[in-house]
Design a protein that fits this description.
The complex is a heterodimer of chains A (111) and B (114).
Chain A lengths: L3 E2 L5 E4 L4 E7 L6 E7 L6 E7 L2 E5 L2 E6 L4 E6 L8 E8 L7 E2 L3 E6 L1
Parallel strand pairs in A: 2-11
Antiparallel strand pairs in A: 1-3, 3-8, 4-5, 4-9, 6-7, 7-8, 9-10, 9-11
Chain B lengths: L4 E3 L2 E4 L5 E6 L6 E7 L6 E7 L2 E4 L8 E4 L6 E5 L8 E8 L8 E2 L3 E5 L1
Parallel strand pairs in B: 2-11
Antiparallel strand pairs in B: 1-3, 3-8, 4-5, 4-9, 5-6, 7-8, 9-10, 9-11
Classes of the chains: A mainly beta (111), B mainly beta (114).
């Protein structure tokens, strides 16, 4: 079993839809949780960064962390075609600086 | 300012050859990371530098892989006796400190071993 599990999709939605992306993890030591967006043939770009449990909102994006269930989510409201990309969840134990990534979910938002 | 840059953007080599991949981090970033991303997978950690020293090299798959950062800025990932399984995108990231703060990624080097 991998430390971080993420459904690779693909996920296809119409423009304006609410998108829900999720990851589960097995390592209870993870303290920092991130979502990266990766366009084709580009490096990952940080979208959201959360420490410990709770919600964090930034514009159309909301990140949720439930440490009791070892489950994290990213919600995208009013999705746009420009949101079409691969979304990667990533986690770190904190003092150990490496990031552990999920496989990524390929999202397509259709106009 | 400029982001993380990586050269070359693409590298095609033959099995058994030696390759070097270069990473120029964002100026002033003391922490530098190398990851490897295979097709359809998320990036996997290889090695982390804090300044000139490798603070964590637990992700290097075997002794054919080696990385240096002699002056605490530019880093080079070196792969000896390349194998077809080494084909992947090699990503470099940098950050201000070694904490779990934002890691800024470069565009990657796409390595193909024939």
């Amino acid at each position: 079993q991998k430390e971080v599990e993420q459904d690779p999709g693909p996920l296809s939605v119409p423009e304006g839809a609410i998108v829900s992306l999720n990851c589960t993890y097995s390592n209870s030591a993870f303290q920092y949780f991130m979502w990266y967006r990766q366009y084709s043939r580009k490096g990952p770009e940080l979208l959201m960064y959360t420490y410990s449990s709770g919600n964090k909102e930034d514009g159309r994006f909301t990140a949720q962390v439930d440490k009791s269930s070892k489950y994290i989510s990213l919600f995208i409201r009013d999705s746009q075609p420009s949101d079409s990309a691969t979304y990667l969840c990533a986690m770190s134990v904190g003092s150990n600086y490496k990031l552990t990534f999920g496989k990524g979910t390929l999202l397509t938002v259709n106009p | 300012g400029a982001g993380v840059s990586q050269t070359p953007s693409n590298k095609v080599t033959e099995k058994g050859k030696y390759v070097e991949l270069r990473c120029d981090p964002i100026s002033g970033h003391t922490a530098l990371y190398w990851y490897r991303q295979s097709l359809g997978q998320g990036p996997e950690f290889l090695i982390y530098f804090q300044g000139t020293g490798a603070a964590d090299d637990s992700g290097l798959p075997n002794d054919r892989f080696f990385a240096v950062r002699p002056e605490g800025s530019v880093s080079t990932l070196k792969i000896q006796r390349t194998e077809r399984g080494d084909s992947a995108v090699y990503l470099c990231a940098s950050s201000f400190s070694g904490g779990a703060t934002e890691q800024f990624f470069g565009p990657g080097t796409r390595l193909t071993v024939l």
